[in-house]
Structure of D-mannonate dehydratase:
Amino acid sequence: MRIDKAEVIVTSPDRNFVTLKLTTDDGLTGLGDATLNGRELAVVAYLEEHVVPLLLGRDAHRIEDTWQFLYRSAYWRRGPVTMAAIAAVDTALWDIKGKATGMPVYQLLGGASREGLLAYGHASGKELPELFDSIRSYQEQGYQAIRVQTGVPGLKSIYGIASNATYEANSGVRYDYEPAQRGDLPSLEDWDTRSYLRHLPTVFEAVRSEFGPEVPLLHDGHHRMSPIQAARLGKSLEPFDLFWLEDCTPAENQEALRLVRQHTTTPLAIGEIFNSVWDYQQIIREQLIDYVRSAVTHTGGISHLKKVLDYAAQYQIKSGMHGPTDISPVGMAAQMHLSLAIHNFGILEYMKHGEKTNEVFRQSFTWTDGMLHPGNEPGLGVELDADAAGRYPYQRAYLPFNRLADGTVHDW
């Protein structure tokens, strides 16, 4: 079974998505997500110029060989663009193999290790009453675990607070937070770490008082703290029993996690901007984290992320895959299949896509009582409606950036 056709499809229903569609000589198709938020066309160019010509005529069943060929033959290895492109190919080939065998992808990965997948949603609010309403809304939708982000006194904006929240006209259901803003320039946000460190423990104290000790609560620091600041925050949050503190320090400085680990027992999660097993070697081996945050879409596909997680399992480190709205339904389905199969699953981030996105991508996965399941259709269980995709052309969009009060650019 040979790859006969490879198409790169760019569409922007609720936001930009890049999808690779492979077609075999016997008519089977496979989809792979290659979306890199804010840099989508870089991956499109890489795929069209450097990957698609290499795929035509290749044996679609040789998934590992194709992965190694695309990775090693390029010489310039790793990096977000390369690994997103390889991820799309890898995921599409798993989709094809599932359809060829008549089985869902999770069966090809060893079968289900659990009945469903615990997922968390993103509650936010500039003030506590708004935050409490958001938490209740997610609980009413069935979410058992909640990420908590809130405004900081004196700041105009903060990560995780939607300035562009929209609502479905008929149901009134809020679309989840989408930070990428369409336009020619990125938007500016402000930041003050000291105010944040003083305020956040009071927020979790109030949330625990209102919602009790049993709700799994998460928080994302989004790489904004120095090592000693992150250590202070982790220590101050210990009384509130967080499920995890995510991305507390810049991901490039992995040594920082050792200092944080020495000062707090709050569980740590990191990895959404990592893209290979080599990014994780030290922090997994030294057990500096508790959860791997990488997404299938950004980490070389199902094949490579499974290697990362198999390595992590030796150290009792669990998965917590990145799953906001910049991961398309194709990417989310791939993550669900992998999460269902691995032994060391922890939790899955799940932000519901908007109505237009669901029009473009038909999905078989289900959401029941706060648990996700990828469904049992052959392959990934997602199909792309080309006509619908064509109605939503690409629109340039950027993630925001931060400046401190004195004008210094800071990590967003």
The domain at 3-103 is CATH 3.30.390.10 (Enolase-like; domain 1). The chain has a mean pLDDT of 94.
